[in-house]
Amino acid sequence: MKYLFLDTNIYIDMIVSRNSSHSADSYELLKILLDHDQVKILVPAIIETEINRHIASEVKNVGRLVQEARRSIDNVYWINHVEEIRTYNEKIGPLKQTLGNMVDEFGRNEERYKNDATQKITGLMQYRNVIRLEENSDLLLKVQKRKLYKLCPFHIEDKESWADALIIETLINIRDFVDIAAEDELYFITRNHKDFSKGNSQTERTIIHPHIEEQLSQKDLLPIFHYRSLYTKTLLEDFADEVTEANIYQQLMEEAEEERREMIDSARHEWHAMERESVGLSSLSSDDAYIERICESDEVEALVSTIESSISSLDAEIESAIEEYSQFEYDLSTISIENLIESILAYNTQSPFLQIIYKRTFSEEEVRDSVLEFVKDHLFLVEDLNSFLASIKSKDYFEIDELVSFRDLDDNIIRLSVDGQLDPRDDDTDSLWVELYKNEERISYGEIEVYYGFINFDEDGGAADGSDESFTYRLERVIDDMADAVQESAESVVQMKGNLNKLRAVLNM
To answer: Is the pLDDT of residue 68 over 90?
Structure first.
């Protein structure tokens, strides 16, 4: 019998088309293979849990990418010649409409996509020849011991890898769960080379980490164990007889060609990354390094600090005003009714146009309620303050997303957000826009410009020419304008408190 032990990322690739080498048929092809009773899948319970935990975020990420693509189209423009611009508009219009329709379609169907993906995984976990492995206390104890001795995957500093450690311990102790014979074969497939492989080089990625290898050897599993990183290639080469009998060989061949192209592209990108890093440039493989440097810059730290201080002050003003109102209600309930009526009559005499309603027939409760009604109508609406406080959302870190939002006392929606995306490319530039909105109107903005630099080598391997990467920040204005917008809202709260205190004086409270 051949046993497949698939890591979480392999299952996710069957659900979300983030890896072109896994077609939409991958899921069904695997079930066809299982139907022939020559292959079984071993699934630790933690993997099923991890898959379900990632499904929602993976589906949401698809929607985010489509939205980013739609927004990026709005930033595209063309040469302003009559024929050129006409041709451009003819081409760009349908593209905008198509992407817009995709955004709308995703919004309507997001929940269905998540439910379908969840049901798909649940169906596979319950399929024939799929063996679910539930961890026990002994296994959890071994994971703790693994952490204590800093064995893979805890060999990586400051990384909590409990789920991966549980997968490793399940693999090493597989005979505690399944009766695996000496003539059986066990295949572990993962793309997570950082946690499971010997190293990050192209060669070392295909070798299991020495910590795991040693423990597999101790359990007499090494002779039947196979470590793989390419799912389709493994099925074609190591399961050739099984896939041929199951009549899925041709479909897997097409997937394997895609897998091979991806592997070549990955090697090319890694080589280029090594060239850049050799001269101190960041890798172009993702925007993570650039986002991290932006977050650590003095300019962005100033932005985040201003957000924290201004929003904190606004929160404090609102909470103080709400407490003032609560105290006003309490003091109003305890003041002598005779003194209160006297103060109301004196006020009404001095203010003929803005009156506190009072009639001789009012009960004591009605007199006090009349004062509160006057406050509510003209001075201070505590419900609005509570809504204002609840509406405030802010982040104490920088990311490409909304950083601040609230609905002020005049029902304006104030938002500070970061828009744009970083797509690292040699000798090219991208910008992130920090934008301040009042309702739908952009009232201020700042820019973070990133230049990625480049390096060219001559035939002898020496640096021929190049340029360093750079970051340019233009944030002073939007930081000031954001602080002013928050301060303006805080001042409206202070004014409400002041009006309430004036009434206190009038009523001798």
So the answer is: no
Residues written for the chain: 509
Residues 108 and 100: their CA atoms lie apart, in Å, by: 13
* 3-state helix, strand and coil shares in percent for the chain, rounded to the nearest 5: 60, 15, 25
Name which residue leads in pLDDT, 220 or 73: 220
Angle of helix 162-172 versus helix 45-74 axis, rounded to 10: 140
Sign of the CA dihedral running 214, 219, 222, 225:
negative
Strand, helix or coil for residue 182:
coil
H helical segments located in 335-442? 337-350, 364-374, 382-391
Q: Is 338 helix (H, G, I), strand (E, B) or coil?
A: helix
CA–CA separation, 308 vs 19, rounded Å? 39
Please say whether the beta carbons of 419 and 326 come within 8 A.
no
- CA distance linking residue 243 with residue 251, whole number of Å: 10
Instruction: Write out the two tokens for 268.
Output: 């090319």
Hunting for tokens 């805890």 — which residue is that?
154
Q: Which residue has the tokens 């409760």?
A: 365
Percent of the chain with pLDDT over 70: 91
Is the pLDDT at 126 greater than 50, yes or no? Answer: yes
Contact residues for 114 (Cβ-Cβ < 8 A; gap 6+): 55, 56, 59
Q: Which residue has the higher pLDDT, 410 or 28?
A: 410
Q: Kindly state the tokens that stand for 105.
A: 């379609």
- Residue 24 pLDDT exceeds 60: no
Q: If you average pLDDT over residues 473-486, what whole number do you get?
A: 95
CA distance 306 to 423: 28
The alpha carbons of the chain give a radius of gyration, in whole angstroms, of: 32
304-327 pLDDT tens trace:
999 999 999 999 999 999 998 899
pTM: 0.50
Per the listing, tokens 């104030």 go with: 414
Q: How many CB atoms are closer than 10 A to CB 441?
A: 8
| Rounded-to-integer distance, Cα 187 and Cα 1, Å | 11
- Peptide bond preceding 424: is omega within 30 degrees of 0, i.e. cis? no
**406 phi and psi, to 5 degrees?**
-165, 160
DSSP tag of 375: I
CA pair distance 155, 176, nearest whole angstrom = 25
In tens, the pLDDT along 223-282 reads: 999 999 888 788 878 888 887 777 776 676 767 676 667 766 666 666 666 777 777 887
CB atoms within 10 A of CB 46: 22
